[in-house]
Amino acid sequence: MRRALVLVVTFLHVYGAFSEEQSNAVPLVSNNAPVSVTMSCQKVETKVVCSFQYLNNGQEDLYLMKRDSPLEEDILSPYMSVYFSGEQIEYEGVFVHREEPTIDDFVLLRAGETRTTSITLTDAYNFASMTSIGIYTIQYMEPLLYISKDKMMSRKAYELSQMPVLQSVTVYIKDTSVLDQPFDGETYETDDEFEMEETCEKASYISATEKEGNNTAEIHEFICKSLKLASLDVDTHPSLYKEWFGARSRKNTEIVKKTFGEMIKGLTVNRVVYDMKPKYCRPKSSGYIHLHKRTLVFSICHAFFSRDMFCSQFGSPSREGILVNMLSKLFGRTAGIRHGEKGCRFLAKYFPEIAIHNSGNYERFYCQSRFE
Length: 372
Description:
Elements: E1 6-7, E2 12-19, E3 22-28, E4 35-44, E5 47-56, E6 62-65, E7 80-84, E8 87-89, E9 95-96, E10 106-109, E11 114-120, E12 134-140, E13 144-148, H1 149-153, E14 161-163, E15 165-173, E16 204-206, H2 210-236, H3 238-245, H4 250-269, E17 271-275, E18 287-292, E19 295-300, H5 319-332, H6 341-350, H7 352-355, H8 359-369
Parallel strand pairs: 1-14, 2-15, 16-17, 17-19
Antiparallel strand pairs: 2-3, 4-5, 5-11, 6-10, 6-13, 7-8, 7-12, 9-18, 12-15, 13-14, 18-19
InterPro entries: Lys_MEP, MetalloPept_cat_dom_sf
Keywords: Signal
Organism: Amphimedon queenslandica (Sponge)
């Protein structure tokens, strides 16, 4: 029996009425929706804050996935969208490298119970990039992943159910210039003055020991060369493509090639910094990546150095693969849907439309292409 995701065809619509610098949302939920969610957003001094309420409508206890949702209480991926007059405000937050989820990545919501959480949108979205006074539309459209308590306890975590969510509220903001900006005040000073030249191999290493700096520089230079070869392998090695991205189609192949192209471009046209002592490392995380203005920052956490330096033929996790994984998230807007080798192969075989948007599949393809 195939271990497919159980897709629960339940749409959750939330409509918001707005008042000055505040919104309130009222959910309209079908009777069989397992969870209802209410969202409201408002300007609080120099921040835009959104609050969420999750209600378990069913008769059984559920574990809700915290990743890529407000339940994580941080914005670690672009699961929110912000618009002004139809123009989208770009996500400027971080993309975190993740391992396979464990029970710690879920929150238990008992039958009939409510859970409230909040996030600060200005941590990841630069409202000040829009100098206009007016109505801002804020949307939350990521699916909510959940599993029953019984299945979680019986270790059937692969049977995650998915509830599509669509929420939209509006907020009236008078003056965006007073709002905080993502990574406000964060700068990376280096000995070398950065010049806007198209080169990939050059990078700076902050708070690194000599060994950390030298090893990471070696990996970085290797990625610069190998990404270009991996991009070519999309066309020249059809069996490798099928192994990690599934059945070929013109549309899917173009998406994969474009993703590799954007990764190469991102390393080439931006200043690259490796920060070995970042502020926001999480347990079990190898690091996170973000682009601030023209500076591409790899924030390297302790777990990163427990991995082998380079990709291997046997598919074991490596520092090289982790960096490629994060690059695909930032420049290809991929997601961490499946992480391990079995999960990535499963997506390629049964769900190629999903595999081409999964960061793990790009990591696996890249690493295997090195040995072709």
